[in-house]
Automatic annotation (TrEMBL):
Gene3D superfamilies: 3.40.630.30. This is GNAT family N-acetyltransferase. Residues 163-296 form the N-acetyltransferase domain. It comes from the Bacteria. It comes from Streptomyces griseoaurantiacus. SUPFAM superfamilies: Acyl-CoA N-acyltransferases (Nat).
Length: 296
């Protein structure tokens, strides 16, 4: 067996990316995603594509943010690993999977082949997440009316709230940011991401009790795939009252008022309270996501 040849693609040979089967339905999941041809890479063995990866970033980014399409042919885990190892960018890897993939033999085998390739390339599992999608047929979640929501133009108010929220959190990405750079790093990462999103800063909301005590924040957003529940967070001293649902309901209403015809959302599978709130608010699970990060 010959060694795989790794190739970056261009506009002239971007068609090679489509040469592999798509058992996990990535193409449908990415029909709104815009990939740059030169951020796509393939591994070829004897002229046949045996692995592929698409790195993704925003239209103004000079480097990719993540890899969100990664496939390997049956038995070609090492070629997939070499595709990842040899890339000029070491960024987070997202693998989206249909719901119930563990119970379907073919889907499970395809998923585990990708996991094996990622681990062989030095990537480590970060978190497993649920992906949600609200549509108008589900009906708008009722606003409980317990909180007062307002716009807040001062980023330092959100920064301080994010520090408090991330001081006690179940979110794997936030925990990793805290471990690597402390609470300031975790809060700044969130602010930087939502400023990067193309949605208006004016949408961000802060929530108080009628007495004026801070409860938390929510950030309605648009990412490149469409409208989404960007962030829901309750400060530690206000937890235990179900306020995350109030934030989620208000966030959903605001996005619909801005013209959203569907709304995405996501939470870590271990975050049972937030998963329950998504279900209560009419957001069904439509897929799962496995996040790997470069362990080195």
């Amino acid at each position: 067996m010959t060694d795989p040849v790794i190739r970056a693609l261009s506009a002239s040979d971007a068609h090679l990316f489509d040469a592999l089967p798509d058992p996990l339905g990535a193409r449908e999941g990415h029909r709104r995603t815009r990939f740059r041809p030169d951020w796509k890479r393939v591994a070829l063995r004897d002229g046949e594509v045996v692995a592929r990866g698409a790195w993704w970033g925003g239209p103004d980014d000079s480097e990719p943010v993540n890899i969100n399409w990664f496939d390997v042919a049956e038995g070609e885990e090492e070629a997939g690993a070499e595709l990842l190892r040899s890339a000029p960018w070491q960024v987070e890897l997202e693998i989206n999977l249909p719901g119930g993939w563990r119970e379907k033999t073919g889907l499970r085998a395809a998923a585990e082949a990708r996991f094996a390739a990622a681990r062989a390339a030095g990537y480590a599992l970060l978190v497993e997440r649920f992906l949600y999608r609200w549509t108008p047929q589900r009906g708008l979640p009722e606003r409980p009316g317990r909180l007062r929501f307002s716009a807040e133009p001062d980023d330092t108010v959100f920064f301080d709230a994010l520090r408090r929220i991330h001081s006690v959190t179940l979110d794997a990405h936030a925990l990793r940011a805290v471990e690597e750079g402390g609470l300031d790093r975790a809060a700044q990462d969130e602010l930087d991401f939502f400023h990067w999103c193309p949605s208006p800063r004016e949408w961000w909301r802060i929530a108080h009790t009628p007495e004026g005590d801070l409860v938390g924040i929510h950030i309605p957003a648009h990412n490149p795939s469409g409208p989404t529940i960007g962030f829901i967070g309750v400060v530690p001293e206000q937890r235990g009252h179900g306020y995350a649902y109030d934030l989620l309901a208000d966030c959903t209403h605001l996005l619909v008022e801005q013209g959203a015809e569907f709304i995405g959302g996501a939470t870590d599978q271990g975050n049972f309270p937030m998963a329950a709130n998504f279900t209560k608010a009419g957001f069904p699970v439509i897929a799962e996501r496995i996040n790997f990060h470069p362990a080195g």
